[in-house]
Amino acid sequence: MGSFFAGIKAGTLSGVLYVGGLAVFNVFLLYALKPDVLKVIQNSYGSICSPAAGAVNGTVEDCFSSVVSVDVPYIAFVGFFVALLYAGLLGRYFDSLPGGSQTVKGETIAALVGVNLVFFGFSGFYFDSQAAAATGAFLVVWTLVFGYFLGRLYKKYTRVVTFNSQDPELLRVLIDGSDFTGKTRTFATTSNHKLRAQVADDASFKEWVASGGLTLEDSRSFETIMEVNGDGSLSGKVGKKY
Questions:
Q1: Which end of the chain has fewer CB atoms within 10 angstroms, the N or the C?
Q2: How far apart are CA 205 and CA 241, in angstroms?
Q3: Do 208 and 147 share a structural domain?
Q4: What is the pLDDT of residues 172-190, one digit of tens each?
């Protein structure tokens, strides 16, 4: 359990930072090693990027400009949506992911994003060993930065709630249909959730006791709405019928 939309929210901001930084670095690298890039273009795409007869994209310089103005933005565009997808998964499965803190979990997701970008060829340009070393080093460092901000932003957009029952055998705490008795879960700030007490046949519900940033529509009703505005805890009170 976690908040998919809080993950998307965190991923949007941190993802823009991530792919924007990669794009700026790629442009810098292309210009810094421009002679080498032009040589690779000439050798590998001479039939396309040559003023000779039949060339469709003009000169090698024209093809270089196309790489900067088309390929770099395209890589950034795809990379952003990869980051956004994994940020949503971070939110959805946040409480099930290994690691004790938001930062560690953010770094875990960031590592998955980085591996995917490399595997599918959207992490940068590896036209020679020098470029590969520079791109690889920057990608590692920048992915760590991305993971840190992803985790911190997710923490900013969520709140932690602990659920307890006076007697877990007699009363179970259900949130949106899931049993959270004795568990701690994260929720998006200002989100509303259906709260219900699952009571044993020989028991009767008494009330909900909420603390911290939790607000209940009706604390005396076994089924009500819980609004999360801050960290807090919720406990269900129950008694025997006989």
A1: C
A2: 9
A3: no
A4: 999 999 999 999 999 999 9
SS3 readout for 83-122? HHHHHHHHHHCHHHCCCCCHHHHHHHHHHHHHHHHHHCCC
Q: What is the largest CA-CA distance in the chain?
A: 97
Between the alpha carbon of residue 122 and those of residues 68, 140, 145, the distances in Å are 14, 14, 18
Name the 3-class secondary structure at 70.
helix
Q: Dump pLDDT digits (tens) for 106-137.
A: 999 999 999 999 999 999 888 888 899 999 99
| Of residues 102, 45, 110, the one with CA closest to residue 71 | 45
Domain boundary among 100, 127, 156: 156
Label residue 55 by pLDDT band (50, 70, 90): very low
Q: Are 209 and 163 in contact (CB under 8 A)?
A: no
